């Protein structure tokens, strides 16, 4: 099989990351088409990445006879419709998380994906492809921590982006803090434990920007989740980390514990100056998960060539969204919620 020919939908910050990886870094792939409603993004694809086919609508792009696969990096509300359309056109599909915002739409989309078993579908839970997380997962699976008892996850965006999010939230629906941000940590809980979540309790506070109350959005949220085997999972999600991009995971078991990125270090440099001893920290997700984004796209391409499905599935996306919806319901109702 020759190179996999991609069309990409959406060229925002994450879209550009995927586009540059496909066009410039990953062997066995070509970026031949791009679509966006933003003219500057199409100009970037054409001028910087050499993409000749540019489209203003997704429907036009998926009708191109020159693409084998699509990479969907559009707003979350478009994902289910765009996934289904690509599947019906016979294309392989890589979609960023979440799979969608509404459970019924996601369930229909899962059915469509399952009806096309010869086409590869992969969801962008890139933390599964991060080397540190893979190392931790291997330890857990080998039983080196014993039986898991507690999983703790922090996922906090840098405060530098909070003001722009507040403007966005006043006229757009992000899906809520847990669906928008904690979805990766929810997936990690299921991935590490191989268990489903059956009960949740969530809460939150808007401190820096109280006006988010009116938008029914959360600046910082916390959740306690009970898994089916009574393992406890604790999640903190937020948008206001002053030091940078803070993603941290702790696994506690009967034989030991481990932490992934207890300090979100940028590199192995220590700076000694008038501020003391300083360790630079990661400032954004493209920096922290640069290798993971590459690895997940390599896996997608390999799955196409080897005619197999990746480990991360549409079902994982469905379950993650169900849990996120239960967390939001818990916040809204101020009560413990069972997950169906």
TrEMBL record:
Source domain of life: Bacteria
Any GO MF annotation of the entry: inositol 2-dehydrogenase (NAD+) activity
EC number(s) recorded for this UniProt protein: 1.1.1.18
Domain named GFO/IDH/MocA-like oxidoreductase: residues: 133-259
Chain ranges of the Gfo/Idh/MocA-like oxidoreductase N-terminal domain: 4-120
Keywords: Oxidoreductase
Family: Belongs to the Gfo/Idh/MocA family.
PANTHER family (UniProt xref): BINDING ROSSMANN FOLD OXIDOREDUCTASE, PUTATIVE (AFU_ORTHOLOGUE AFUA_2G10240)-RELATED, NAD(P)-BINDING ROSSMANN-FOLD SUPERFAMILY PROTEIN-RELATED
Name this polypeptide is given: Inositol 2-dehydrogenase
């Amino acid at each position: 099989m020759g190179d996999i020919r991609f069309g990409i939908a959406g060229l925002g910050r994450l879209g550009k990351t995927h586009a540059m990886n496909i066009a410039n870094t990953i062997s066995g792939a070509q970026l031949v088409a791009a679509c966006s409603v933003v003219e500057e993004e199409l100009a970037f694809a054409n001028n910087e990445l050499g993409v000749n086919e540019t489209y203003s609508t997704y429907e036009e792009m998926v009708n191109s006879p020159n693409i084998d696969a699509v990479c969907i990096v559009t707003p979350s509300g478009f994902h289910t419709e765009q996934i289904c359309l690509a599947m019906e056109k016979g294309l392989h599909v890589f979609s960023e998380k979440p799979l969608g915002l509404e459970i019924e739409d996601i369930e229909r989309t899962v059915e469509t994906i399952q009806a096309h078993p010869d086409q590869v579908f992969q969801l962008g839970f890139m933390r599964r492809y991060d080397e540190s997380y893979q190392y931790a997962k291997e330890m857990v699976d080998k039983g080196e921590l014993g039986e898991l008892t507690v999983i703790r996850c922090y996922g906090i965006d840098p405060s530098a982006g909070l003001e722009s999010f507040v403007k966005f939230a006043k006229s757009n629906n992000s899906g809520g803090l847990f669906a928008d941000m904690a979805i990766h940590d929810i997936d990690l809980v299921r991935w590490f434990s191989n268990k489903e979540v059956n009960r949740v309790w969530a809460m939150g506070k808007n401190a820096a920007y109280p006006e988010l109350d009116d938008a029914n959005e959360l600046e910082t949220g916390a959740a306690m989740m009970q898994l089916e085997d009574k393992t406890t999972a604790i999640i903190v999600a937020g948008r206001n980390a002053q030091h940078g991009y803070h993603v941290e995971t702790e696994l506690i078991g009967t034989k030991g514990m481990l932490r992934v990125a207890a300090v979100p270090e940028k590199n192995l440099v220590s700076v000694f100056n008038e501020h003391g001893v300083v360790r630079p920290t990661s400032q954004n997700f493209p920096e922290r998960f640069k290798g993971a984004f590459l690895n997940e796209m390599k896996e997608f391409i390999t799955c196409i060539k080897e005619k197999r499905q990746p480990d991360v599935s549409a079902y994982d996306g469905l379950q993650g969204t169900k849990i996120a919806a239960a967390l939001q319901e818990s916040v809204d109702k101020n009560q413990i919620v069972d997950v169906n």
